[in-house]
Every structure is written in C-alpha cells, then in structure tokens.
C-alpha cells in the first residue's frame, strides 16, 4: 500500500510539475517566438488544404525538373481519371498529418535526449538582452522587407521573398492573438487556431482565384506583374503565417482521442469545403488562366 501510495503521489507530483512547466514556458518570449513564430509560420495549413483541392481536381502542379521555382504548366500535364485524383487527395490528407505527428514525436524524443548536455540560459540575460534585441531585430527585418518591396534589387525577388516577408508578420500576429484569446473558450476544441486556419484558407483561395482569373488581373494593363507578385506574397506570407500545421498537430497530440479526431476532421473538412466553393466555382465555371507565374514579376 505504501509503495502504491508513493507511486500515485509521485505520478501526481510529476503531472502537476509538467503542467506548471507547460504553463510557465508559454510566457517566455523566446518560447513564443520559436513555437508560435518560427514553427507556426514555417508550416502552412492553407497550402496543405489548397494542395489537397488541386490534387482532387487534377491541377496540382509538378515541379520543373530543370528550372527551380518553376512548375510544369497545366496544359502540359497528363489527365487522369477520377480514381487517381481521389487517391492523390487521400495521399495528401493522410500523409501530411501522419508525417507531422511523427515529426512531433521525433522532436520530443530528441529534446529529451539532448536536454542533459544543453546549457541553460540565464533568465537575466533573456529578459535584459535577448528580449529587447529580438524586438529591434524583428522591426528592422520587417521594415527592411518593406523597403525591398518598394525598391527591389531584382524584380523576381518580389515573387520569391520580399512581399511574402512583408505580409508574414501580420499573419503570425493574427494567429497568435486568436489563439491567445479564443483557445481557452472550449477546452476540447482550440477555437483560435481553428478560426486562424479557416480564415487563412479562405484568403488563400480568394487570392488564387484573383491570380488565375483572366477577367480580373490580366485585364489591368501595366500593373499585372505587381498585382501577381502582391497576391503571391499574400499567399506565401500572410496566409502561410496565419495558418499552421505544427500548432494544429501539437493540439491534436494533446487532446483526448475522441476530441482530437473531431477537431482534426472538422478542420480539414471545413477548410476543404471552403476551397471547393471558392476555387472550384471559378475553376469549373470560368476556368483558371495561367497569366500569373511565380517567376514573372
């Protein structure tokens, strides 16, 4: 009985300690910057859903074997039957979360393995040196990206980097504030992350329609290249940082099994249905025009 009581008390103390650690680390700016900022912006839920829709409609572009940053044109792609498109869609919807969950578990094991050899960071240095420097570095990098959008050394930079970097901070901040204020509303359903992912997916679908609509972008003489670059920057920057797969997967891992299945399936189903309505309505009724090319601006 004493052994059982000791085991239970130890487990409870360990669980309470883990809860306190999880609660405390989320207040550190360095942790927020790495988890919400870098990891959340490095992964994109909206692109994941858009790829699933493009696979469903046999419009997912293949990378060019000879030219980086370019893809094979849609007219050069071979058509396939509906069964192959369905399998391609299922492959994206299954492989993406599965690989992300595996990466999350791998990262957790790596962190446990290297924890004894990693030096600790003094709190005084974090608060007095690293935090103010991060604020200065963040504002400087964002203003530098804005200036490069206005005066780019190379025109192709606008499509590949500068507009995306300029639109990225607003997307990341929107996701952070939505998660901070709304995730606690429903314990079994992270509402803030869900709204951020759905909203970013809607914006990406709208920008994709504008990019590929010959009636809108292609008929604006003189500004079509800049318009294409801005829309590409919104897709890569704002939508890519407003939506996240890493946080979504971490939340799935932390929920109970039933709640995780409901949250994950609802997120994917609602987002994919929105892309079918937004992109599918124009693609099937009007058709996509290949006027905007990523390397054209």
Automatic annotation (TrEMBL):
Membrane topology per record: Multi-pass membrane protein
Subcellular localization: Cell membrane
Molecular function GO labels: fluoride transmembrane transporter activity
Catalytic reaction(s) noted: fluoride(in) = fluoride(out)
Protein keywords: Cell membrane, Membrane, Transmembrane, Transmembrane helix
Membrane-traversing stretches: 86-112, 132-151, 182-203, 223-249, 261-286
Pfam families: CRCB (PF02537)
Domain of life of the organism encoding this protein: Eukaryota
Recorded GO CC terms: plasma membrane
Function: Fluoride channel required for the rapid expulsion of cytoplasmic fluoride.
Record family assignment: Belongs to the fluoride channel Fluc/FEX (TC 1.A.43) family.
Protein name: Fluoride ion transporter CrcB
Annotated source species: Phialophora macrospora
Lineage, highest ranks first: Eukaryota, Fungi, Dikarya, Ascomycota, Pezizomycotina
